[in-house]
Amino acid sequence: MTAPVVTSIDEAVAAVRAHFGQATVTTAPDGSGGVYVVIDEVDVGPTYTSSTTWLGFQVSAAYPDADVYPHYTGILTRTDGQPHGQAIQQTTWQGHPGQPAQQISRRSNHWNPAVDTATNKAVRILAWLAAQ
User: 109-118 burial, b if ≥16 CB within 10 A, otherwise e?
Assistant: First the structure.
């Protein structure tokens, strides 16, 4: 019996699960060789009326050579009543079908598969969101 082949996508999901430890991380095939990933109960900081939400993204079949972009969260409302900036828009997302979501468009123009990962991109997105 041969061992299952571990792909870069499998490794990315395992790293996300390891980093976000206590959070539930779910995946679903995207139909194109990649996966949709949802991390439940991530902290987005005191800028929002709910300081926790889910974070979703797609790890495409082209990973690690392709950026993990865009990211999605549940609907967040700013505590200061101000609108979100240009990088955030309301939509729905396939990882949570039919559920309202916010898309966070923060592309990594210089994605480098030697150093950039799905995990560190998620961490950077959450830090950026908390700083808004």
Answer: eeeeeeebbb
pLDDT digits (tens, 9 = 90+) for 47-84: 998 889 999 999 999 999 999 999 999 999 999 999 98
The closest of 57, 58, 105 to 85, measured between CA atoms, is: 105
Residue 82 DSSP one-character state: P
Q: What is the 3-state composition of the chain as percent helix, strand, coil, each rounded to the nearest 5?
A: 20, 30, 50
| Separation between Cα atoms, residue 42 and residue 24, nearest integer Å | 10
Which residues does the chain have with pLDDT short of 70?
Answer: 1-6, 95-97
d(CA 26, CA 122): 15
**Of 77, 127, 81, the residue nearest 106 (C-alpha):** 127
